[in-house]
Amino acid sequence: MRRAPLRERTLVRTASLLATASLLHAAGAHAQQTDATGDDEVQLETVVVTATRLASPSYDTPASIDSVSGGELFGDRMGVNLSEALFNVPGLVARDRQNYAQDTQISIRGFGTRSAFGLRGVRLYVDGIPATQPDGQGQVSHFNLATAERVEILRGPFSALYGNSSGGVIQLFTSDGTETPSFSASSSVGSFNTSRSSVGTSGSVGPADYTLGYTHFETDGYRDHSEASRDGVNGKLNFKVGDAGKLTLLLNWFTTEADDPLGLTEEQVQADPSQATPQATQYDTRKSVDQTVGGAVYTHKLSDTQSLTLMGYYGTREVVQFLAIPQAPQNNPGHAGGVIDLATDFGGADARWSWQSELAGRPASLIVGFAWDTLAQQRTGYENYVGGTFGVRGDLRRNEDNDVNNFDQYLQASWDFTDRWTAMLGLRHSRIEFESDDHYIDADNPTANGDDSYRTDYSATTPVAGLMFRASPKAHFYASYGSGFETPTLAELAYRIDDGSGSNNTLRDSRSRNAEVGVKLRPTSWLRSEIALFQTNTEDELAVASNSGGRSTYTNIGKTRRRGMELSADARINRLLSAQLAYTWLDAEVRQDYLTCTGTPCTTPSTVVAAGNRIPGIAENVVSAQLRFGAEAGVYGTLDARHVGSVEVNDTNAATPTDAYEVVDLSAGWRWNFERWTLRTFARVDNLFDENYIGSVIVNDGNSRFYEPAPDRSYMGGIAIDFKS
Q1: Which of 416, 427, 544, 614 is the most buried (most CB within 10 A)?
Q2: What would the pLDDT profile of 544-568 be if each residue is shown by its tens digit?
Q3: Partners of 126 in the β-ladder
Q4: Neighbours of 476 (CB within 10 A)
């Protein structure tokens, strides 16, 4: 792949090293100052997380959990994609694809990189409402960052407590209403005719508090044929119910229209990384989404030790997507066409009883609950041409109703059985049922297009256990182990490997065994650090069997392994300066040979994927560093630097991998505080040294269009106003 000139790469690497060196140097200076003066007033806030369903300091939880505040998510950024702010979370990679027809590419500890549709292997939630559907496929495009209080990221074995996932859990929490009514407005403009406007209000009225926000975003895109627009509303209303109850009502609405520039071949990237592939314009590839979700959460304190939480939600999602599938493959009578039209109703409920008291005179807790989720989807497919005109809806080629339901029961307990030791146990049983009723049948030629209806189900019991040893107030050690599983999604079940009519309902669910050990350090009040070692062994992992003619098919493969190390450090160096450092080493490889196909039909797989091959889409090394300067008023600034290692793009590791790259971003602003007003202006430069690099990849693309280039140096500026009445 084309790389930036050596001089620029050297500057970037130097800047990255300087950022890290500054952190270490400043930390040393701070330590000397503290030792000399005894002044330890500057300190980090205690991070309280709820990823294990009971609020507790992350320092006392035997799992890898990070929390990113709403200010970091929205702040001096465009505030549209999670990828803008999560790069300082070790073990997590969130890539902006520069393609709003596809969701942000997110992986945790190497799970999720193979997904061609939405997010896989990671459970997603907004205020407790699942953003992952029962089949395991999820989306984050409706996450409203303007109203977010924080995002929590749970990694490792304890993600099994949430069911059908193996990599981890990402949860967004909307801010509660403020005591004093307030109003906020912000606007940002940037390169590629990009703009974002947000307005919001928050406050309290009697026994209720509220938060409501609206965001509009639009861009012409860095690449040709990548224009997009988004609108979203997110609201939260809390009521006190008597002396012991609380009712929360939630509403999220999201709509988007986006062109799809598709991926590029290596030759196309070298010629012009900002171009769209010719097929994108020929077929006018694009996607539209309309989604509305509403929910309610009721919490009732039954006694001093017991509480009950009930959650229910319902939503609709409509998706229309035009694909670049040539006319010839669609001549197959069993082909589903080049236009996807999905109308989905989904909903569910979660109920849990919680107990917090003492066992044998020591603090203990117990949670028992169940979760039920359902999805009813009408899926139709159409030809993407009429006569000689492409990119338009043609004849019907697919018509089916799909239903997916899961019913899970879960239990988790913790016990501080001594002053220094805590044990945590969990168990979840899941059952997911799939049913598809085919309404597109050729009675005259059932061999070519018969009744493709099917029913199948998957079930698993996933235990997890963790142990924490508080060696001292400055060091906590922990270990955890658990099992996990992933079912195929509706999209992965959609097509048979042999290109025949019907579904691939012979796919099995994959099973994983996850182990983790770590240490959490708080050597001073202004510095915290964590180190985790982990390994996940998976059997029957779902992988691409073939990818050709616009159709991906999937198969189960033998054994894979992901092992690695995560390191993070967070320092409040002094009143004006803070720093973060995150490093991930991840060795993800195939552990057993398997066969795949290079085209369709795939009647006899013959291409060997050898043991020892790297799993595609995963960088072995990722480093990020951040320095922040500023106080509550006046000038402030942020320097971000990150290194991402090379990435394989297909299972055989035969195509050219992406080059490693280093990128530096710089932002600065000024904050004015008045009696009732706060005014903030800011400017930002991303990719400061104009590095040429591949930001994300389309794993196993059948046309070798693997590469999604990142933008050149880009600029953004904005203004934000907050008013309290």
Answers
A1: 544
A2: 877 766 667 888 888 999 999 999 9
A3: 129, 172
A4: 23
Q: How far apart are CA 292 and CA 399, in angstroms?
A: 24
Amino acid of residue 577: L
Q: Which domains does the chain have, with CATH numbers?
A: 6-37+48-724 (2.40.170.20)
Asked if residues 305 and 37 have their Cβ atoms less than 8 Å apart, the reply is no
Asked whether the beta carbons of 468 and 52 are under 8 A apart, the reply is: no
DSSP strand pairing (168-174 vs 122-126): parallel
Query: Which residues have C-beta within 8 Å of that of residue 108, sequence separation ≥ 6?
Result: 91, 92, 121, 122, 153, 155, 167, 168, 170
- In the chain, the N- to C-terminal Cα span, in Å, equals 55
Residues 6+ apart with CB under 8 A from 308: 299, 300, 302, 351, 352, 353, 354
Lookup result for tokens 């012991």: 244
Distance of CA 355 to the CA centre of its chain: 31
Note the pLDDT tens digit of each residue in 308-358.
999 999 999 999 999 999 998 888 887 888 999 999 999 999 999 999 999
Q: Give the span between the Cα atoms of 491 and 455, in whole angstroms.
A: 15
Mind listing the pLDDT tens digit for each residue in 469-502? Answer: 999 999 999 999 999 999 998 888 877 776 666 6
pLDDT over 60 (residue 705)? yes
Mean pLDDT of the chain: 89
As given in the structure block, the two tokens for residue 393 are: 């809806």
Distance CA 102, CA 116 (A): 9
Tell me which amino acid residue 699 is: V
Token pair, residue 635, equals 């000038």
Q: How far apart are CA 461 and CA 478, in angstroms?
A: 24
pLDDT tens for each residue of 64-106: 999 999 988 888 889 899 888 898 999 999 888 889 998 888 9
Residue 381 has pLDDT above 60, yes or no: yes
Q: What three-state secondary structure class fits 24?
A: helix
pLDDT higher than 60, residue 14: no
In sequence order, what E strands does 573-633 have? Answer: 577-590, 594-596, 607-609, 621-630
If one counts every other C-beta atom within 10 angstroms of the C-beta of residue 611, the result is 14
Name the residue among 438, 443, 338, 430 with its Cα closest to residue 386: 338
Alpha-carbon radius of gyration of the chain: 25
Q: Report the C-alpha dihedral over residues 260, 263, 269, 273, rounded to 10 degrees.
A: 20
Distance of alpha carbon 188 from alpha carbon 201, whole angstroms? 19
Question: The pTM is what?
Answer: 0.91
Secondary structure E strands in 591-644: 594-596, 607-609, 621-630, 634-644
In SS3 terms, 651-694 reads as: CCCCCCCECCEEEEEEEEEEEEECCCEEEEEEEEEECCCCCCCE
- The encoded tokens of residue 349 equal 């409920």
